[in-house]
Amino acid sequence: MKFRQILLTSAVALALSACGGQSPAPAADTAAPAADAAPAAEAAPADAAPAEAAPEAAAASKPAVVENCATTIEANDQMQYNADSITVPASCAQFTINLKHVGTMGANVMGHNVVIAAQSDMEGIDQDGAGVTPDHVKADDARVIAHTKVIGGGESTSVTFDVAKIKDGGPYKFFCSFPGHMTLMQGSIQVQ
Questions:
Q1: What phi, psi does 44 have (nearest 5°)?
Q2: Residue 135: CB partners within 8 Å, gap ≥ 6?
Q3: What is the mean pLDDT of residues 119-145?
Q4: Chain centre to alpha carbon of residue 119
Q5: Beta bridge partners of residue 98, listed in sequence order
Q6: Using an 8 Å Cβ cutoff, are 80 and 54 in contact?
Q7: CA separation for the pair 113, 47 (Å, rounded)
Q8: What's the average model confidence in pLDDT over 171-181?
Q9: How far apart are CA 150 and CA 142, in angstroms?
Q10: Cα(77)–Cα(151) distance, rounded to whole angstroms?
Q11: How confident is the model at residue 60 (pLDDT cuts 50, 70, 90)?
């Protein structure tokens, strides 16, 4: 299963490079062979800094700012969210996640969404939804707590859900279900 995700991520990166897009993400993927990562770094030295920063960013927590039972998460053309955790106040009955795509690439090439689910369901949701709808989430998938539509550069969307759905069980995560993105674009969501 992990091999499929790596293969899919590599295919997306290859397609982007063929179209002139930039994708430093495969260079940051530690599961990819080092020989594959080196040519990408040599081909675009300007992209080396974000790719090298990714492991450091994963080690340092980037919690989302939460105000009035809502947060705004930004996604970019380098397959990254600006936050890796969301703490929902226990006093909230409903919570809203606003997603803003701060990149420039279209939804068909570098689209992003936010899907909320139990961590144990992520891989199945990602695989079952790949390519089935424009939002890459299978219709009526009971494992999905909430999700936004897929958006491209310069676009925004949001989703509001009942907090009770993530109070028990878990752990819960938010992630991007665009094919190949979940590996890099995910974070924890919890009620406190």
A1: -140, 80
A2: 113, 129, 147, 148, 149, 150, 177
A3: 93
A4: 13
A5: 72, 158
A6: yes
A7: 24
A8: 97
A9: 19
A10: 12
A11: confident
